[in-house]
Amino acid sequence: MTTDWADWARGRGRVLAGVAVCTALLLSFHRSVPNGVGGLGSLLESFLPWLGVVVVALLVLALVRRSALALSALLLPVAAWTYLFGGLLLPAPEPGPDDLVVVQHNVSDENTDPAGTARALARAEPDLVALEELVPPALEVYAKTLAPDYPYRAVRGTVGLWSKYPLNGSRPLDIKPRGIEEAWERGLRTVAHTPRGDVAVYVAHLPSVRAGASGLASSRRDESAGLLGDALAGEELRRVVLLGDLNGTVDDRALRPLTDALNVAERGLAFSFPAEFPLARIDQVMARAGTVGALRTLPATGSDHLPVAARVIWD
């Protein structure tokens, strides 16, 4: 009986160790997961940090089974997860007087309290506020509520930027993917004249993705990300900030035209969607010639997204 129990325990330990090794491989080589069938690679990368939950579950099972083999194997996914995401959990650097404080929020075109949402964002005291899904008459409410603290604004289609600093050179961005016939204006570029110099500010709302039985439908989002990447590559100003609902995480390979060119947040997981139970951060702050030192979520508003706030530290 004792031998049977030992054999069974060793067998369960080998299974747990095998799952631990597979989890480590997914974390370390997620770029190798093919995207051709159902967008599996992007789907995995959208929820990659949640593999940490798998690691915790395996740890509990390994302790229950008292399996030295499983516990040893768990060192692999722990090391891989820590390498990828551990830095995000470290304390944020102390704020500096020259930091650019920004807020990014998809306010939702179904938001029933635009005035309350605007006041909540202003309480974070950012220098710049980027909003998406701006629709009349809510747009007028946001403009009126934010105007006392943010006298400068640029709005193109359903995206907008409010600023404490003067803006000029505002223009729409052509990030509309093929196949959309209706009016679709979801990107803008402007220049903010800050005390530290001019900053090119991009605000974008990339197309939504859909996860279903056939996988991840993201072709329009991916095409729009490529167009936005082309625009950023042609930007002449050295300092750039991108704010937007990009409908993708920074680990998603589809956003590489952006993440290869811009710095992403160094601190803070800040899952922003859906607001009721955030599973992923699809609202992003990125920068060129600067570091996104810390990124955090703000309290929920009337939107299905949580706002995110960040400090950009210039080089």
Protein described:
- The protein has 315 residues and is α+β, with helices and mostly antiparallel strands.
- The chain has 9 helices and 13 strands.
- The N and C termini lie far apart (67 Å).
- About 2% of the residues have low confidence.
Radius of gyration: 22 Å
How would you write the strand order of the largest sheet?
A: 3-4-2-1-13-12
**Distance from first to last alpha carbon:** 67 Å
Overall pLDDT, averaged?
A: 93
Uncertain segments are 4-9
Order of helices and strands: HHHHHEHEHEEEEEEEHEHEEE
Apparent shape: globular
Strand content: 15-25%
Number of strands: 13
Helix content: 25-40%
Q: For the report, how would you describe the main beta sheet?
A: 6 strands, mixed
Helix/strand layout:
Layout: H1 2-28, H2 40-46, H3 51-65, H4 68-73, H5 75-85, E1 100-106, H6 114-122, E2 128-132, H7 138-146, E3 152-156, E4 159-163, E5 167-172, E6 187-194, E7 197-205, E8 210-212, E9 215-217, H8 219-233, E10 240-245, H9 256-259, E11 283-288, E12 290-297, E13 308-314
Parallel strand pairs: 1-2, 7-10
Antiparallel strand pairs: 1-13, 2-4, 3-4, 5-6, 6-7, 8-9, 10-11, 12-13
Short description:
This protein is an alpha+beta fold. It has nine helices and 13 strands.
Could you list some keywords that capture this structure?
315 residues; alpha+beta; six-stranded mixed beta sheet; five-stranded mixed beta sheet; 13 strands; 33% helix; globular
